[in-house]
Amino acid sequence: MQPNLLAPKNFINRELSWLEFNRRVLEEAQDATQPLIERVKFQSIFASNLDEFFEIRVAGIKQQIDSASTDVGPDELTPVQIFQAITKTAHELVAAQYALWNRDILPQLARNGIRFHKVHALYGETAEWAHHYFRTEVFPVLTPLAVDASHPFPQVLNKSHNLMVRARRHDEEAPLYAIVQVPRVAPRLIALPRKDAAAPWDYILLSDLVKEYVGELFPGLVLEGVHAFRITRNGDLYIDDEEADNLLRTIEQELRRRNKGNAVRLEVNADCPRDFQLLLLERFNLTDADLYLHDGPISMTHLSRLLNNEAFAKLKDRPFFPAHDPALPPGSNVWDRLRHDDILLHHPYEPFEDLVSFIEKAASDPKVLAIKMTLYRTSGDSPIVSALGVAAANGKQVTAIVELKARFDEANNIQWARKLEEAGVHVVYGVVGLKTHCKMFLIVRRDDDGIRQYAHLSTGNYHPRTARIYTDLGLLTTNTDLTQEVATLFNTLTGLAEYSGFKKLLVSPFDLAARFKHLIERERDHALNGKPARIIAKLNSLVDETLIAALYEASCAGVHIDLIVRGICCLRPGIPGVSENIRVISIVGRFLEHSRIFYFANNGHPSIYLGSADWMPRNLYRRVEIAFPIESPALRKDLIQDILPAYLNDRVKARELQPDGSYLRLKPQPGEEHSQAQLYFREQARRRNAAALAGITPGHEHAVRLVPMAKP
Fold this sequence. Notes:
Endonuclease, Chain A
């Protein structure tokens, strides 16, 4: 009798799985083998991740609790149970974060000439400099806001640093209260003057500087207490596409409200007295469960400034320089290359600038007739946006599908969408009710033998900055069947045509989920018939209940399944009779794993897809996403014999998901190499760069093979 695959015990809660991901980020900061500044970087990333988690996920759960929602997920935990579990784990993680900072990171920084000082402990010329800096750079922009019968409590902005001041008049006992916002226009981390190049680097915190001299804002009063606090608010936008006459204007209005959403977390320093805590909790309608006491900086996101100081180069990772793909050497004619072979770019190991250069060439090429592109996230100074403007100015037909609802990038997207429109680009703001999350562009060119379409399909955004730190794969192709489907999809998104289905592309919200389910079931059927069957999927998140159940079915049939899931994984591996043939690993390293790869053995005739979508309900049913096949024999070989095995054989940065939802860091067994996927790809790039300097055309000298999956 087959077990109930949808039993709640078979699923890990989404929010708790995300917290385990952020625990893995913190583990990178705890890893003493990492360069010191890299450990600081991971502390900052951990803090930034947690901010967004509270702004979006915790805020949503608190809304469910307030509305007495009875909705439950596949794990059947109620919103109250989830919130209680989140609170317990989040407090534990934050305590570990600050213990690491005080007991390990801070002393290590000091030993390496990077020191943090309390402003009240400064003396002599340094104290005079700090006071002068306050008077000239900070004091002019400060505005004390009284809190009394005629002055209501001010609107404290989301994630802003603030001071709550209690004072009294000399001849009165009644307390007076005021709020002072630490200015956002000044650097949060201030470097003190250095006497010479050999001197240590000394830093103070802006909030501590303001706290030390805040009395100058209240002449004639006696200060009785000054304590820093930080509020996190609900940061999600509510946008009803169908009710919005002008989507752009609606989003602009919602952005102004983001800083005023309901409070979901209060952070204070550990020395903040209880009466101050209670006053703030009451004001923001929070409880002790929402209170986080920090023995250190009230936010560690500002520590990222240390990463940009070149004086600390010896305390960072070894510099890395991407290498050109052998199929696309500098100076090559990309049009000729693509007419003969597909090209697979692997970022950041291969430069994103090659792709930018391709678009820039297309913008000025007189043979190019049209460019169509989806834009989900990109930088404000994006060369791609500039190239699209140049193309429009050169008389080409240019269309950009811009997603205005890209979370936390809405303002940037509005800015460059307007820039594109001013340059003459046809800008389309996505599809009503759906986020356009697919990554693709199409170039239409009149070649000597006729009009040809050149397509790029990617797992990542067209963002030059994140392309240096996110791992992604992008396919350049002139395959007629595939490029025609891309052209039809663009027409579907910009016009009025209904989706009629494709042979090559898998597209959500139409058929992507159903076709992935079919591919999983095909492997199940092969296994039941005694034929070779295997599944490997590399994702950011695995949440969808239907696909998880299909994977469980395949596992029960004997399919060996390897899942490489960076973040959330609601599938529980290693359950006897359900998922004993499923292994889940997560890799957290120098670069953010972002590529999605799907491999189905198919009785010796593998199907391989890359895509923009994770296996989450939002990606499968509420977004426009694509998965695209890799059909070039050379590129398939590269993925099967090189890229996927490198991830599966990682024994340094990989952690394996245990049946209880925890993760165990993998270590090499006796005789095994200390394999590390990201290091392997970086070394490939270094060898190619060295070979290029020597005038040698390198190959992949140390490619590895797919190995049978070890059972959990």
